[in-house]
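Revision sheet: structure tokens.
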Amino acid sequence: MCHYADAGINCTVHLQSVDLYQFRSFPDGHFEFCPGVNVFFGPNASGKTNLLEAIHVLSNLRSFRSRNFRELIVWSKKNASVRGVIQDRGGNRKQLAVDIQPHGRIPLLNAKSCKQSKDFLQIMPSATFVPDDLSLVKGAPAFRRYFLDKSVFHFYPPYWALLTDYNRVLRQKNTLLRRLQQGHGRQGAEEACEVWNLQLQSLGTKIIVQRLLFLNSLKRQLAEVYARWLGDEETLDIQYKSGIDSDMKELQTIMNPLAGGNIDDLSAIVLEGYERALRRAMAREVRQGVCVVGPHRDDLDLRLRGRLLRAYGSQGQQRTAVLALIFAGVELYHERYAEYPLLLLDDVGSELDTQRHAKLFDYLQQGMQVFITSTHRLNLGEHELSFDLSTRKGPVQAGATDPF
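Predicted:
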């Protein structure tokens, strides 16, 4: 079994163990992990991805497979839970838990309900790759906004409050727009909309600026990751697509020399474009009964050799791009905090050729805690702990593992 000293791992958050109760295919189960690479292997339907999903839920308070919490609970049961013990950055042990009910979940820290999700989400950050999930490339814009917002939050925690306040004001404006659409409250409507617009402009500008600053850093890491061991000579780029009336090339020009530079100039240009876009959209918003301009409608474009990946990329190229995006975020997190998030990889080996496969496994030895699924043993080295899920009968115990 590997230990911190053996693995040469500087203390990041380490998930030491997980207990499952009525989660997916596990009536119950107990797993103890090493701080290096943990491999869940076995044939299809043996529970590999379910275990990975449970760790994801413990980190993110949501599944990467379904928004329906009922699906996470063993059939005919009323609730489920995922409980974990972590060692934090200071070497302290903490107990995390997510109690799952058909219509929601309750996060707990050290057996006490965690009142604000944002506090729980900062405890054990993670990055997850699932090969069948191409939503980051060709799914609805909401998937890419979630990826972006979650990422920005981990680099700028006040972002959570910005989003919360923005969504509150957005709901209030949409309520007014629906009334106007139905022919109610026409008198004074323009003044009322202006009140909400001023708040949306202020909050929305801050959100967009934080997104742009994050993406400016991510673009650099994405190019390096893709060129180093994923993309050969191809170039992968990510671009922010906004409905505000601002020139994105002008914004990019401002950000390029921005090594902690002039955010005020960037904010001023975004705000001016936001104001123009809202004025231009007023009649359309009244017709549709909904606000059509702002960060809640913005999107990301991934481009390979300058071509839109979701339109022109093969499925293999799209999967490789998602993998590169995940690892670019991991590297950016490490650059910022000198530690790694948990890395969750579902059957990633099947997506890579032999050369890239070897580069990936070298990368995983850098000192991060990794959870990876496979149909077979991977034999990644002395700092690997493998779990054979094909042998389980009822509860899965740590004794069913084979440490390397």
